[in-house]
Amino acid sequence: MPDSTPQRTLRIAMNGVTGRMGYRQHLVRSILPIRDSGGLLLPDGTRIRVEPILVGRNTAKLAELAERHGIAEWSTDAAAVIADPSIDIYFDAQVTSRRAEALAAAVKAGKHVFTEKPTAETLTEAVELARVAANAGVTAGVVHDKLYLPGLVKLRRLVDEGFFGRILSLRGEFGYWVFEGDGQPAQRPSWNYRAEDGGGIVVDMFCHWNYVLEGLLGKVEAVTARAATHIPTRWDEQGKPYPATADDAAYGIFEMENGAIAQINSSWAVRVYRDELVEFQIDGTHGSAVAGLRKCVAQHRSHTPKPVWNPDLPVTEPFRDQWLDVPANAELDNGFKLQWEEFLTDVVTGRPHRYGMLSAARGVQLAELGLRSSAEGRRIEIPEVTL
Ligand SMILES: NC(=O)c1ccc[n+]([C@@H]2O[C@H](COP(=O)([O-])OP(=O)(O)OC[C@H]3O[C@@H](n4cnc5c(N)ncnc54)[C@H](O)[C@@H]3O)[C@@H](O)[C@H]2O)c1
Questions:
Q1: Atom 7, ligand 1: which residue's CA is nearest?
Q2: Which among 96, 137, 222, 310 is placed 20 to 30 Å from 208, CA to CA?
Q3: Is 145 touching ligand 1 by the criterion CB < 6 Å?
Q4: What is the rounded average pLDDT of the residues 334-363?
Q5: 365 C-beta closer than 6 A to ligand 1
Q6: Mean per-residue pLDDT of the chain
Q7: CA of 162 to the centre of ligand 1 (A)
Q8: Relative to the CA of 204, which ligand 1 atom is closest?
């Protein structure tokens, strides 16, 4: 019997798929599983199929990737792909410094756009991009992957259920040791450590922290940050030493609209003594919770021990055992894939994506003001971003 399910095929130009994020999270963990499962089924019965078109600079790498994953089309001519009327969506995971221009060109050509963060290197560019996207009437979305992670989904549920009472503070700890590259090769690209190439942990992470904070507690009203370059020399992909001109650690305090104080350390120069590479703790009058990428534990007021400070005695309280696991109560898939599925649904149904270019611009703004706070040694209030 012929398949009578209404179908829609979305052709997605994917630029930057030879890179870490573009390849692993977006192609292999998101678009290919959606393609290989026969597409995404919407509640109204429509099936969305996806057709990736790989875009990049290196013919050999693209051809190899296309062959490995059974992808029919690839191109090194990004402008031609963007001009191709058969392409529905342009996706960008290039290095940050090339993003804003490519996205603006795609939007002007009438493409829907989905992109890695940050959308631009400056707030001015990010807002301009948001304006162009709004005028073009396309669906535009930015990766807010952390909000889709099981740990943060559970944490958000606790917020929604009023578990915390009045939320007092949030503490975040993010980071791990990124090898300098002289002995063992570095596990992150060298451009991340060069300011002139769009690198730096503030630019990289503060846009994440902005949407994480907005998603959990509300708007950020002020920032006080201190960025540092702890490791001044690193070795690149060719084994050559280079001066690390970008910050590799940032210590930030964020004042929230609900009165809570958030404090997040981000560092590529720390060693991990945590359960996960990122952890957030929320403390409230009625309870506290700690969430990582996957796990979340909570402690209610009525289960809170009453420790007494006495450095003369060994610790007898098993503090870590006094927290209860927060269950998922649902199948929580890869965060990038979940957001892709939401974005593809938005494109087909015409619904705006939850995390659009203005949200992206607020992330860029927090990074920009965080760097200014550090350079000027002062607290900075955050003005509202408008088109
Ligand atoms: N959402 C997240 O958690 C997350 C994590 C890491 C990185 N990112 C973002 O993803 C983007 C890509 O980061 P990545 O770690 O995959 O980087 P990467 O260096 O591994 O990949 C960069 C990609 O851009 C391409 N590129 C285009 N022009 C280039 C140029 N002039 N120099 C070098 N590469 C060029 C490369 O070929 C490659 O495909 C960045 O914007 C970064 O901020 C997001």
A1: 21
A2: 137
A3: yes
A4: 97
A5: no
A6: 96
A7: 38
A8: 43
